[in-house]
């Protein structure tokens, strides 16, 4: 079967379409035919050698997707052949087929198509963690959402609005304003130099925002701190884009809450994974959450998808279709 693999870290050019052995499910595992695989920023980190460094053989990239059950190992219950499923984290998803632990799969309702399901898993669960769990947005709260036209940003904006919050989005170019506004952003700041704080404070009525969601790297960190109101919350989430600069805790604004939010802590058990993915599907079915697919690429075009994502020119979710 075909898959996108790399044998050394580097730029998009290290991603190659390769013939790989047919995967075989072991106990508790399911063989899945991939209908669509999600492209996530973490995949670019894997490609550049930030994660999964212990792997010696050709590493198949990708963690997210949707498709159909085509085989089982022993001991798998509650799934049937042909069933449509999706997953947020299963290494090796840039492939025609892969083996996924049954516990990592969620059933996809008939009303949700494969591409939408693949597009909403990682970024949707991330956004729902941020707005309902890490900092449960309350009606009237003002949130600053970075990369507001990106995959996480568009979903996060909509979930904040569903909860009655207001959104100030920050995007890097004027081309992205319409997408952020279509997702419900009340205001959109265009900035790429980290000079958005004064506008964010002004747009929040002068006091600063209740919460900032920032996965955009070192350039935005200080501005995000400066945008917060007294006792505000800083939801930091960008290990791929952010440098790990040491932090002097005494330099932080007093009484703020600053934390590293990780989507996996939103779905620590199979039951919570199914419940919280199910809630995303419900929101999609009832029209509260719209999933914007910004680009669909053939599996063989994974390198181009990575280059496009890193160019900052894309909006919404990028998918690979085997
Ligand atoms: N903690 C978690 O659980 C978790 C889960 C998923 C993702 N993440 C993190 O979230 C971030 C976004 O990942 P994603 O896969 O979900 O993609 P995404 O939300 O679609 O992000 C793409 C956006 O990132 C911005 N961007 C692109 N290149 C950039 C650069 N060089 N510097 C700064 N910003 C850049 C762009 O927005 P603008 O050009 O408008 O700024 C683009 O719209 C990554 O840092 C990823 O590691 C964290």
Distance between the termini: 10 Å
- Any idea of the CATH topology of the largest domain? Quinone Oxidoreductase, Chain A, domain 1
- Corresponding CATH architecture of the largest domain: Alpha-Beta Complex
Radius of gyration: 20 Å
Question: How many domains, in number, for the residues?
Answer: 2
The chain-level mean pLDDT equals 96
Write out the distinct hetero groups bound to the structure.
Answer: NADP nicotinamide-adenine-dinucleotide phosphate
What is the overall number of helices? Answer: 8
The CATH homologous superfamily of the largest domain is named Medium-chain alcohol dehydrogenases, catalytic domain
Structural class: alpha/beta
CATH class of the largest domain: Alpha Beta
Helix and strand run? EEEHEEEEEHEHEHEHEHEEHEHE
Ranges where pLDDT stays below 50 over 5 or more residues in a row are: none
Secondary structure: helix percent: 25-40%
Strand content: 25-35%
Q: Give a count of the beta strands, DSSP E runs of length 2 or more.
A: 16
Q: Any idea what the shape is?
A: globular
Largest sheet: 7 strands, mixed
């Amino acid at each position: 079967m075909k898959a996108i693999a790399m044998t050394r870290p580097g730029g998009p050019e290290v991603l190659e379409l390769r013939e790989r052995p047919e995967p075989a499910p072991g106990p508790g595992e399911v063989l899945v035919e991939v209908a669509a695989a999600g492209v996530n920023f973490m995949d670019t980190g894997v490609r550049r050698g930030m994660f999964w460094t212990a792997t010696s053989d050709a590493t198949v990239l990708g963690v997210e997707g949707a498709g159909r059950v085509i085989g089982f190992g022993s001991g798998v219950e509650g799934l049937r052949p042909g069933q449509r499923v999706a997953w947020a984290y299963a290494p090796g998803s840039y492939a025609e087929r892969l083996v996924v632990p049954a516990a990592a799969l969620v059933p996809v309702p008939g009303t949700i198509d494969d591409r939408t399901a693949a597009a909403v898993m990682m970024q949707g669960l991330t956004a729902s963690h941020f707005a309902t769990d890490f900092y449960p947005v309350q009606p009237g709260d003002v949130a600053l959402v970075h990369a507001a036209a990106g995959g996480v940003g568009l979903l996060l904006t909509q979930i904040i609005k569903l909860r009655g919050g207001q959104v100030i989005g920050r995007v890097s170019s004027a081309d992205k304003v319409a997408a952020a506004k279509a997702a419900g952003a009340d205001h959109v700041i265009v900035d790429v130099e980290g000079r958005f704080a004064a506008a964010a404070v002004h747009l929040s009525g002068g006091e600063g925002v209740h919460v900032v969601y920032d996965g955009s790297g070192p350039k935005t960190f200080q501005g995000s701190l400066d945008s917060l109101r007294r006792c505000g919350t800083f939801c930091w989430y960008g290990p791929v884009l952010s440098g790990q600069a040491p932090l002097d805790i005494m330099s932080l604004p007093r009484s703020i809450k600053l934390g590293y939010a990780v989507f996996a802590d939103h779905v620590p058990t199979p039951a919570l994974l199914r419940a919280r993915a199910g809630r995303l599907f419900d929101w999609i079915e009832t029209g509260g959450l719209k999933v914007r697919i910004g680009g669909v690429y053939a599996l063989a075009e994974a390198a181009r998808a990575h280059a496009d994502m890193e160019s900052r020119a894309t909006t919404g979710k990028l998918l690979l279709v085997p």
